[in-house]
Amino acid sequence: MLRRFNLDPTEVIHIGDSIISDVSGAQNAGIRAIWLNRLNKTKPEGITPDYICKDLFEVRECFEQFITRISKAVFVKIVVFKKIVLKMVK
């Protein structure tokens, strides 16, 4: 998928509710991961998400932090996805 859209793993952030398949899988591919932990599950040993969010409002805050850390060129690539997330939390 990264090659298809000409993206570097550092330009992507994965959001998922499974600490093992979503977070660990993304990180194994060199992609940052947000663990959407809506059920307040206990984090298992050996897996450390880049961000832990309890709801989509916190995901939006993580995106804002993520965007400030990446270059302007990368920002253009994720702006569409950010708009989708913002619509979901409004």
TrEMBL record:
GO molecular function: hydrolase activity
Protein name: HAD family hydrolase
Pfam entry (one): Hydrolase_like
Keywords, alphabetical: Hydrolase, Magnesium
Keyword field contains Hydrolase: yes
